[in-house]
């Protein structure tokens, strides 16, 4: 897989990570019939500061028109081009447990430039089954004709994830999305993105706990108002 245009042009990684967010926001605006959008409006839709958005888009050579804003369709095309979404990317999902099933059936891949082309598992009881319209194959079947330009998705238990990553790398895969809760060791030139749902929940639990502590603290500091005593005769 060749580097995406954004990587070749030296666009910062943090900016690249925000480009899909802008693309999603622009898609929502286009769906409602919006033709042009100001940086402030787009920033609000994307949940970032307008100054950060303008700087991010400047890496693409897109500055908008003063007093008019950004052309929604054109900016969508520019961002899609930088992300390498002019054509569908083939995806191989490895691990057909509950998570693998859910990913295989996820319709959002197709609408965002990704085509799930292979479902892979090593369990003989699963190989040959049809899931989301695709037949599950073994790793040997996948390796018999190594796919070019494929993105590997690891949806296995953590104990199997490193071995899966090694086999994907041996096949020439350079981009891996890892759902297993573990750290993968891969050679230079292989990009790994980690999705750890449990970690994200733990971070939310941290914020929820501290929010409750602050609310309880405020309640403790609230003045106690005594009710007036009834007059005695």
Automatic annotation (TrEMBL):
<dbReference type="InterPro" id="IPR058236">
    <property type="entry name" value="Rex_actinobacterial-type"/>
</dbReference>
<feature type="domain" description="CoA-binding">
    <location>
        <begin position="85"/>
        <end position="183"/>
    </location>
</feature>
<comment type="subunit">
    <text>Homodimer.</text>
</comment>
<dbReference type="InterPro" id="IPR036291">
    <property type="entry name" value="NAD(P)-bd_dom_sf"/>
</dbReference>
<keyword id="KW-0963">Cytoplasm</keyword>
<dbReference type="Pfam" id="PF02629">
    <property type="entry name" value="CoA_binding"/>
</dbReference>
<feature type="binding site">
    <location>
        <begin position="95"/>
        <end position="100"/>
    </location>
    <ligand>
        <name>NAD(+)</name>
    </ligand>
</feature>
<dbReference type="GO" id="GO:0005737">
    <property type="term" value="C:cytoplasm"/>
</dbReference>
<keyword id="KW-0678">Repressor</keyword>
<dbReference type="Pfam" id="PF06971">
    <property type="entry name" value="Put_DNA-bind_N"/>
</dbReference>
<keyword id="KW-0520">NAD</keyword>
<keyword id="KW-0804">Transcription</keyword>
<dbReference type="GO" id="GO:0003677">
    <property type="term" value="F:DNA binding"/>
</dbReference>
<dbReference type="GO" id="GO:0003700">
    <property type="term" value="F:DNA-binding transcription factor activity"/>
</dbReference>
<keyword id="KW-0805">Transcription regulation</keyword>
<dbReference type="InterPro" id="IPR003781">
    <property type="entry name" value="CoA-bd"/>
</dbReference>
<dbReference type="InterPro" id="IPR022876">
    <property type="entry name" value="Tscrpt_rep_Rex"/>
</dbReference>
<dbReference type="InterPro" id="IPR009718">
    <property type="entry name" value="Rex_DNA-bd_C_dom"/>
</dbReference>
<protein>
    <recommendedName>
        <fullName>Redox-sensing transcriptional repressor Rex</fullName>
    </recommendedName>
</protein>
<dbReference type="GO" id="GO:0051775">
    <property type="term" value="P:response to redox state"/>
</dbReference>
<comment type="function">
    <text>Modulates transcription in response to changes in cellular NADH/NAD(+) redox state.</text>
</comment>
<dbReference type="InterPro" id="IPR036388">
    <property type="entry name" value="WH-like_DNA-bd_sf"/>
</dbReference>
<keyword id="KW-0238">DNA-binding</keyword>
<feature type="DNA-binding region" description="H-T-H motif">
    <location>
        <begin position="21"/>
        <end position="60"/>
    </location>
</feature>
<dbReference type="GO" id="GO:0045892">
    <property type="term" value="P:negative regulation of DNA-templated transcription"/>
</dbReference>
<comment type="similarity">
    <text>Belongs to the transcriptional regulatory Rex family.</text>
</comment>
<dbReference type="InterPro" id="IPR036390">
    <property type="entry name" value="WH_DNA-bd_sf"/>
</dbReference>
